[in-house]
Write a structure and sequence with these properties.
By secondary structure, the protein is mostly beta strands. 13% of the residues lie in helices and 33% in strands. It has two domains: 2-72, Hotdog Thioesterase (Thiol Ester Dehydrase, Chain A, Roll); 85-230, Thiol Ester Dehydrase, Chain A.
């Protein structure tokens, strides 16, 4: 099966390429169940991309260049309990990148976007750097016709928080290399959600983070394991 998609400029990560989580979510929407999606090059914006789906594997191309690939995955992740809504709200005051962000117009976590144009996810440490959190209030234009947060937007929300968890108190320029995620159920618009994240170690230039999204009462809606690749200086 083959069709064409485009990543609108609104959903950028770095200024001239797609947010990694959103781009992964576009492919994951074509995969049944938990998925692993890899980004091979930065996804271009406002560009027709060809998507091929065969044998459970989905690939996205810009001409002859492989942009991303995804497939089902046997997903397993130890997920801590969600902090409270009050704790998550308080943690946002300690967002480390509010004044010094590498990609400050990122759709997910960029503090320099117009109000409510992005997801406005600003995770900070709850008590220490072993757990970070923020509150997310999805805007109406990110919902589907049934009033649920669109799946690719959920994937976007599972992206950047993992970066801040993986890096801790020392930010380094990095891009998303791979995202494994599972959506447990629909996320209704109009209700505040808790996005929380924790470090999962590192290996060379690769850093790993876990992220989860929960309702205010702690019900788990989605989770992910992200792999971040440090940019060479």
């Amino acid at each position: 099966m083959q069709h064409s998609i485009s990543i609108p400029a609104r959903y950028n990560g770095p200024p001239v390429s797609g947010n990694g989580g959103y781009s992964c979510g576009v492919l994951a929407a074509l995969i049944e169940g938990p998925a692993r999606v890899r980004l091979h090059v930065p996804p271009p914006l406002d560009t027709p991309l060809t998507v091929h789906s065969e044998g459970g594997v989905v690939r996205m191309f810009d001409g002859d260049t492989l942009v991303g690939s995804g497939a089902p995955v046997e997903y397993a992740l130890d997920i801590p309990a969600a902090p409270s809504l009050t704790e998550a709200e308080d943690a946002m005051s300690r967002y480390i990148a509010r004044e010094n962000h590498f990609f400050d117009t990122c759709f997910v976590c960029g503090p320099s976007r117009p109000a409510h144009d992005g997801l406005e996810l600003y995770p900070g440490p709850v008590h220490d750097w072993s757990l970070l959190a923020c509150v997310w209030r999805p805007q109406a234009d990110l919902l589907d016709e049934g009033g649920q947060v669109r799946s690719e937007v959920m994937w976007a929300a599972l992206d950047c928080p993992g970066y801040f968890a993986a890096m801790g108190d020392t930010l380094r320029p990095a891009v998303l290399g791979q995202l494994e995620a599972q959506l447990n159920g629909p996320a209704a618009g109009g209700n505040p959600l808790i996005v929380y994240c924790w470090p999962l170690g590192s290996e060379g230039r690769k850093y790993f983070g876990g992220t989860a999204i929960a309702t205010a009462d702690g019900t788990l809606l989605a989770s992910s394991r992200s792999t971040w690749i440090l940019l060479k200086s």
